[in-house]
UniProtKB/TrEMBL annotation:
InterPro entries: AAA+_ATPase, ABC_transporter-like_ATP-bd, ABC_transporter-like_CS, P-loop_NTPase. SMART domains: AAA. Pfam families: ABC_tran. GO terms for molecular function: ATP binding; ATP hydrolysis activity. It comes from the Bacteria. This is Organic solvent ABC transporter ATP-binding protein. It comes from Flavobacterium reichenbachii. The keyword Transport applies. Residues 21-259 form the ABC transporter domain. Keywords: ATP-binding, Nucleotide-binding, Transport.
Length: 259
């Protein structure tokens, strides 16, 4: 049974200004009969961390890739900052993407570039009027924000999995996005490093007042970061609430995520 609930009041004081992301009746089918999304509805408020849970293949990553235009849905609306991104031109969509950071599972660094070059390349692609000194300052600031200022001259091959995630996050932060989409930010990391990444997600929200969607299988990450949790099942939002509420939910399937 779909458990539609009133939206839970988020923890953050900055979430009372209406949704910064609104998804309405989102559908997506791949091929002839591989239907992934069957009418997803969700909102994210300013300054809120929303965690999306679901089994593998449930459409979690598809949902956030639709938000940045990496996947085009078959039906529905995706409003970001009040604008339906599906109606934007390519140029307008690119302008919108600058405000939306996306942390891929792998960190998605360019292996042939140093850490400095990875971050500089991203910055120059969007802010071409910056001087060399300004670029260097922004790169250092972004690296220090994730605690890796001393890794500036390293190559990706010299970094641990946790460090790659942090550098990927620094590259996202360098454009000072208002929204960050995290796709499995702690996957493949040990318990201590996973906790450090979760703490970093919280720190970024508190300091930069970002809104975030966090796709994760890591329940420790979900418990630490979530203001609100939504659970995807069979292509729709099946349940919604705080970690504590869903942990005690009457639905055995929902509770299974918390065991």
């Amino acid at each position: 049974m779909i458990k539609e609930k009133e939206h839970t009041e988020p923890k953050s004081e900055d979430t009372n200004q209406g949704p910064i992301i609104e998804i309405i009746d989102l559908h997506k089918t791949f091929g002839e009969d591989n239907t992934i999304l069957k009418g997803v509805n969700l909102t994210v408020n300013k300054g809120e961390d929303l965690v999306i849970l679901g089994r593998s293949g449930s459409g979690k990553s598809v949902t956030i890739k639709c938000i940045v235009g990496l996947i085009e849905p078959d039906q529905g609306e995706i409003k970001v900052f009040g604008e339906n991104i599906l109606n934007l031109s390519k140029e307008e969509l690119n302008e919108m993407r600058v405000k939306i950071g996306f942390l891929f599972q792998s960190g998605a660094l360019y292996d042939s570039m140093s850490v400095r070059e990875n971050l500089s390349f991203t910055l120059r692609a969007h802010k071409r009027d910056l001087s060399e000194e300004e670029v260097e300052s922004e790169v250092i600031e972004a690296l220090e924000s994730v605690g890796l200022g001393d890794a500036i001259d390293k190559m990706p091959s010299e970094l641990s999995g946790g460090m790659r995630k942090r550098i990927g996050l620094a590259r996202t932060l360098i454009l000072k996005p208002e929204i960050i989409l995290y796709d499995e930010p702690t996957t493949g990391l040990d318990t201590i490093t996973s906790r450090e990444i979760s703490e970093l997600i919280l720190d970024i929200k508190n300091k930069q007042k970002t809104a975030s969607i966090i796709i994760t299988h890591d329940m420790a990450c979900a418990k630490m970061t979530a203001d609100r949790i939504m659970v995807l099942k069979d292509g729709v939002i099946h349940a919604e609430g705080t970690y504590e509420e869903l942990e005690k939910d009457e639905d055995e399937w929902v509770r299974s995520f918390f065991e």
